[in-house]
Amino acid sequence: MTAYPAASTENVQQAGHVLAVAASPGHAFSKEPQPGITLVAGLGVAGDGHAGSTVQHRSRVRRDPTQPNLRQVHLIHGELLDELAEKGFDIAPADLGENITTAGLDLLALPRGTRLAVGADAVVEITGLRNPCAQIDDFRQGLLKAVIGRDAAGRPVPKAGVMGIVLAGGAVRPGDAVVVTLRPGPHIALERV
Predict the structure, then answer these.
(1) What single DSSP character describes residue 87?
(2) CA distance 82 to 30
(3) pLDDT value at position 189?
């Protein structure tokens, strides 16, 4: 296993914590909340239907089953759930299919390649934005529109969380710290993966 050294303090940009964790063995839209999950380097969440070194999402498997799985772990900022509640949507952690719900982190503003130290041992590298699909409206009518924001130029920006790969495995539980470390620049904005 590759060791990932602790970040120097100048690269640590923010710290938050884990609100909830989830995993499900199947490919349902929502996941099941868990008391803890285990991240496995190069694969994702142990026992989760989306874990694997190659793509596991059905639509991507149909296109090319050999492509690397850049969506091993799905993270959503808990603040999105608060925002959706203000719009009349009752959404709980894991409802949108995320494995880790965070608090205190602006996940969407982080650049590609950002590393998240989660709990005592796990490290997740952010690969891009979750691309919400029509299934989200099947879950709650009108939710797709609610999770698509607009940037300063008016372009659509998905707000349904970020995706990542597991660099170092470990246990993750609610209450665990999440420390953000930026890689050396230049920084590349997140795109849909």
Answers:
(1) T
(2) 18
(3) 93
- The token pair at 106 is 């602006």
| Token pair belonging to 149 | 């924001």
Give me the mean pLDDT over the 154-182 stretch: 96
Contact 114, 181 (CB under 8 A): yes
Phi, psi dihedrals of residue 85, rounded to the nearest 5°: -60, -40
Residues 10-15, mean pLDDT to the nearest whole number: 64
The tally of CA atoms less than 13 A away on the side-chain side of residue 92 is: 6
Residue type, 48: D
CATH topology of domain 12-181: M1 Pyruvate Kinase; Domain 3 (2.40.33)
Distances (CA, A) of 115 to 107, 170, 190: 11, 15, 13
Mind giving me the DSSP string for 33-79? Answer: EES-EEEETTTEETT-TT-SSB--SHHHHHH-TTSB-S-SEEEEEHH
